[in-house]
Amino acid sequence: MPAQCDPAPHAEAIPGNIILVGLMGAGKTSVGRLLAKRFNKAFYDCDQEIERRTGVKIPVIFDIEGEQGFRARETAVLRELTALHDIVLATGGGAVLSEENRRVMAQSGTVIYLRARLEDLWQRTRHDRNRPLLQTADPRARLEELFAQRDPIYREVATLTVDTGNQNLRSLAQKLEQHLREHFHAAAGRAAQEFGSERS
Predict the structure, then answer these.
(1) Domain spans of the chain, in order of start
(2) CATH class of the 17-199 domain in this structure
(3) d(CA 22, CA 128)
């Protein structure tokens, strides 16, 4: 079920869907919940939705169906969630690997890449056993490999890229809100300018 809260008193509406991408440990779920609260949008987490529907944790899906089976489930759930309106969606770290997923996300809302430093990602994920891709002999090297592979893809699909830094979640949510407002104000200005050019 989606999470929905009252908006912050000062928050103006941000139109459409907000879709968060980034590596595991970037804070997509935590930040997504805060953004949903600020903008009075429903919040969904793609991985949590997969677990809710299957009744098992993601590592179990990996064990039984392999990564390919999990990715097929991920694409199906992502397609359903991005068809909703006025939501904040936290995607799984590997969702961007599929060209279809990238196309669906780009067409369905404003995509934000939460870009964290590799060291911060490692500190947040090193003891998390719910990360099947890191259950290897050298998880740090695996994380470095994932970062190198996916960082360019995140940048490609994202409307906005925001470096998370060492700030707390609330400060990061405020930073994201500022970037979103600047983006939409700039887009509105360009639209008005184009409309004026067409009429002249």
Answers:
(1) 17-199
(2) alpha beta
(3) 17
